[in-house]
């Protein structure tokens, strides 16, 4: 009985020593993780401050600069893990073999994530848009806030934050409304057949000249065209180019201005009356 007790005590002491020893290693590994993270963060701050002082950041777009910060963080975390695991008794060859197997498994199971990662580099390399640009991807539209490794962040005009996977930006059409310095404003409205279109055209051209001086905004190529004839009214369309940054202001402003012109000319918007007594 005493022999069995001593055997049990030996096993117990062995387990306790193993747990304490490995627990101490884990504690040291955690402390080492935080220590290395502290050093890496300091190095990262020094690196990016050096880039700022050397004015290299000004040569790089904000989009690329933020992407590099995100990539630097993930890369350094991966290197720290490779440094700490051998200390816990995991051979480096086993780590490489495990990461190789995991890479294959993850590559098959997480094709979307890898696709977003690769697409992030494609988006940056194409330079089709940058932070602050107004873009549309599919049915999502807004201002580019940030481009990171896996996602691109947009802020809508309703102040909503939307994260778009980078793979969607490379697989769908993307419209960059800020790419050109000018955008065309198009506004359609209806007038009756007895409208003096020549006089109306002169009035609208005078309106454009007045707005040029009032708002100090260049309004280019203003035209008034007859878009369509209907049995009850004529559809006219005003077209002109303005600076991209004031596009939305003028798009809504022109509607009110044209209404005032029509009121001055005593032109009423046509109303189509349906003769119900002739319906069968």
Describe, in plain words, how this protein is organized in 3D:
This is Small conductance mechanosensitive channel. The chain folds into three domains: 1-53 and 60-121, Helix Hairpins, CATH 1.10.287; 133-176, Roll (SH3 type barrels), CATH 2.30.30; 182-265, Alpha-Beta Plaits (2-Layer Sandwich), CATH 3.30.70. The chain is 57% helix and 20% strand. The protein has eight helices and eight strands. Helix 1 runs antiparallel to helix 3. The longest helix is centred in the N-terminal third of the chain and has 52 residues, at 2-53. The chain is elongated and about 95 Å long.
Descriptive labels:
280 residues; three-stranded antiparallel beta sheet; elongated; alpha+beta; 3 domains; MscS_channel_2nd; SH3 type barrels; five-stranded antiparallel beta sheet; 8 strands; membrane; transmembrane helix
Total DSSP E strands? 8
Element-level helix/strand string: HHHHHEEEEHEEHEEH
Structure class: alpha+beta
Oligomer: single chain
Task: Estimate the strand proportion.
Answer: 15-25%
CATH C-level name of the largest domain:
Mainly Alpha
Distance between the termini: 111 Å
Number of helices: 8
The helical percent reads 55-70%
For this structure, the CATH topology of the largest domain is: Helix Hairpins
CATH 2nd-level architecture of the largest domain: Orthogonal Bundle
Average pLDDT reading: 75
User: What's the story with the biggest beta sheet?
Assistant: 5 strands, antiparallel
Low-confidence stretches: none
Radius of gyration from the alpha-carbon trace, in angstroms: 33 Å
The order of strands across the largest sheet is 4-3-2-1-5
Shape: elongated
Number of separate structural domains = 3
Domain Mechanosensitive ion channel MscS C-terminal: 185-269
GO cellular component, one term: plasma membrane
Domain Mechanosensitive ion channel transmembrane helices 2/3: 72-111
Membrane topology: Multi-pass membrane protein
């Amino acid at each position: 009985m005493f022999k069995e007790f001593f055997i049990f005590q030996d096993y117990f002491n062995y387990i306790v020593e193993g747990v304490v020893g490995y627990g101490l290693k884990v504690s040291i590994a955690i402390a080492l993780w935080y220590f290395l993270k502290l050093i890496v963060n300091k190095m990262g701050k020094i690196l990016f401050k050096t880039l700022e002082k050397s004015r290299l950041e000004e040569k790089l777009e904000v989009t690329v600069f933020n992407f590099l910060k995100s990539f630097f963080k993930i890369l350094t975390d991966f290197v720290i893990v490779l440094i700490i695991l051998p200390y816990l008794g995991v051979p480096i060859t086993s780590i490489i073999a495990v990461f190789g197997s995991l890479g294959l498994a993850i590559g098959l199971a997480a094709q979307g994530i890898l696709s977003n990662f690769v697409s992030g580099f494609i988006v940056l390399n194409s330079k089709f848009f940058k932070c602050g640009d107004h873009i549309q991807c599919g049915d999502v539209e807004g201002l580019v806030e940030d481009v990171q490794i896996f996602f691109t962040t947009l802020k809508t005009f309703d102040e909503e934050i939307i994260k778009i996977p980078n793979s969607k930006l490379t697989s769908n059409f993307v419209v960059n409304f800020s790419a050109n310095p000018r955008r065309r404003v198009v506004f359609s409205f209806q007038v009756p057949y007895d409208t003096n279109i020549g006089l109306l055209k002169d009035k609208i051209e005078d309106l454009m000249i007045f707005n040029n001086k009032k708002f100090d905004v260049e309004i280019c190529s203003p035209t008034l065209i007859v878009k369509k004839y209907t049995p009850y009214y004529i559809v006219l369309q005003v077209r002109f180019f303005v600076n991209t940054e004031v596009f939305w202001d003028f798009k809504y402003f022109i509607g009110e201005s044209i209404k005032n012109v029509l009121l001055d000319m005593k032109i009423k918007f046509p109303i189509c009356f349906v003769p119900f007594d002739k319906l069968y």
